[in-house]
Amino acid sequence: MLPSRSPTPDDAADLRFREQCRRQLARSVETRMKYGFCRVSRPGLDTPTSRVFASTRAYREWCAANLPAYLGYQPAPPE
């Protein structure tokens, strides 16, 4: 016989997550599609102009100068 153990906070979180998954799967596909995506404004990228860059360096410089950091197009910090 295996020894019993008391539930941990991780077990409770796991049970809550599983119950949330069950609730979501009970929804229709249309409802899941409606609420399954997050629309984010991407300033600098969503404008209707097209851009052509002569090099990757020029592209990276444009990204650093024109796009907000939260989009993830900024250069990585030096290590």
Would you give an account of this structure?
- Helices cover 46% and strands 0% of the residues.
- The protein has 79 residues and is mainly alpha-helical.
- It has a domain of 54 residues.
Short description:
This protein has 79 residues and is an all-alpha fold. It contains three helices and no strands. Helix content is 46%, strand content 0%.
Alpha-beta content class: mainly alpha
Reported for the largest beta sheet, the result is:
none
Could you give the order of the helices and strands? HHH
- pLDDT averaged over residues: 84
* DSSP helical segment count: 3
Q: State which percent range the strand residues make up.
A: under 5%
Shape: elongated
Question: Care to count the β-strands?
Answer: 0
The radius of gyration over CA amounts to 23 Å
Percent of residues in helices comes to 40-55%
Low-pLDDT runs:
none
End-to-end distance: 53 Å
Provide key terms for this protein.
79 residues; mainly alpha; 46% helix; elongated
Question: How do the helices and strands line up, and which of them pair or pack?
Answer:
Elements: H1 9-26, H2 29-35, H3 56-66
